[in-house]
Amino acid sequence: MTKRWWRWFIIALILTAVFVAFTITVKYVGTQNIGTQTIGWAAINFWWRDLVGVQNFWQITSHIFAAVTFIVLVMFLVWQALALLRRKSFRAMPHHWWFFDLTLIALALCYIVFQIMVINFRPLLIDGVVELSYPSSHVLLLATLWPVFILTLSREVKNRTRLRVASIIGVIVMVVGIIARTLSGYHWLTDILGGILLGIVLTAWYQTLTVRYNLSVNPEPDKI
User: 169-190: per-residue pLDDT in tens?
Assistant: First the structure.
C-alpha cells in the first residue's frame, strides 16, 4: 500500500468520524423543545428559521435542480447498461463504474438508515404531516452525485475542454441546488450541513476505493 492510498484512507476515516460526531451533537447538544420535538443546536437553528422563513421560490428551485441531478443519474445508468450489453462482460467494465454504483448503494443505505434513526423533524408541516429532516435528502443527493460524477468523468473524458465545461456545469448545479434548499426554509440549518458532510464522506470513500484499485493494478513506489 502506498502513501497516496493511505492519505485518502485516513482522510475518509477522519471525515466519517467528523460526520458521526456532528450528527451526535445535532441530536444531543444545545437542545430545546418545540412542541413534541427536541431540536439540537437550537439557538442556531431557530435563528436561521426566523431569518429565512418559508420561501416557496427556493423550494421549487431546489426541486428543479434535484430533478436535473436525478435525470443525469438515470442517463448515466442507461449509458452504463448499454455499454455493458455491448461489452458482454462485467470484467470489461471500468472499475470506477462499479465504485460509482457502490456509492449509489451507500447513498441509498444512508437514506434508509436516517429514515429509521430519527435525528429531528422539519421546522414546518408538509401537507399537515411531520416529516423527518436530517440530513436533507436534496442536499445529500447533490453533494454526493455531482462530485462523484465529475471524478468519474475525469477518468472517462479525454478532452480537457469538455471535461472542464461538464465540471463547471456540475458544480453550478450542485452549489445553486444546495443554496436553494438552504434558503427554502424547509430544513434546519444543521440538516443542510449534515447533508453536505455526508456527501463529502461518500465522495471521499469513492476516491479512496478508486485510488486503491488503481494502485493494485499499477503499483507506484512510495514517495518521501
Answer: 999 999 999 999 999 989 999 9
Cell numbers describing residue 82: 448499454
Structural element, H or E, at residue 1: none
Whose CA is closest to 185, among 78, 57, 43, 41? 57
Q: From CA 88, how far away is CA 194, in angstroms rounded?
A: 40
H helices present in 88-159, as ranges: 95-116, 137-154
Average pLDDT, the chain: 86
Domain boundaries, the chain: 3-216
Q: What is the C-alpha to C-alpha distance for residues 142 and 103, in angstroms, rounded to an integer?
A: 13
> How far is the CA of 142 from the CAs of 52, 85, 182, 200, in angstroms?
21, 29, 13, 10
For residue 32, report the phi and psi dihedrals to the nearest 5 degrees: -140, 150
Interacting residues of 53 by C-beta distance below 8 A, sequence separation 6+: 185
CB burial of 99-115 (b: ≥16 within 10 Å; e: otherwise) equals bbeebbebbeebeeebe
